[in-house]
Specification:
The chain is α+β, with helices and mostly antiparallel strands. The chain has two helices and four strands, in the order βαβββα.
Length: 98
């Protein structure tokens, strides 16, 4: 699987890139064939305060997935996005444990 990280208006640190790679391993274990995971990171400066966001687009051999999540940090937004993707994939593949 190819991982693409696009940081808007900032340079993603090596630690953030490593965190994304580690989080991506969680979805690699799911029963789908992922071709590419694209992460878009940025700040939402509208409204009250600044929030970090993470958009994740998965390209798979069947269909694709897109999730957008916000957090107080990029790590929080990435982790929440990966959790939501996992839930969607499990639901779609019938491997949802709930």
């Amino acid at each position: 699987m190819r991982i693409v990280i696009q940081a808007l208006d900032f340079k993603a640190s090596g630690n953030l890139r490593l965190f994304i790679e580690i989080c991506t391993q969680k979805i690699e274990q799911l029963p789908i064939s992922i071709v590419q995971a694209e992460f878009i990171l940025g700040e939402d400066r509208t409204g009250a305060g600044e929030r970090k966001f993470c958009d994740v687009r998965l390209t798979t051999t069947g269909s694709g997935y897109l999730v957008s999540q916000y957090g107080h940090s990029y790590e929080e937004a990435v982790a929440t996005a990966i959790t939501e993707l996992s839930k969607k994939i499990r639901k779609d593949t019938g491997t949802d444990s709930t």
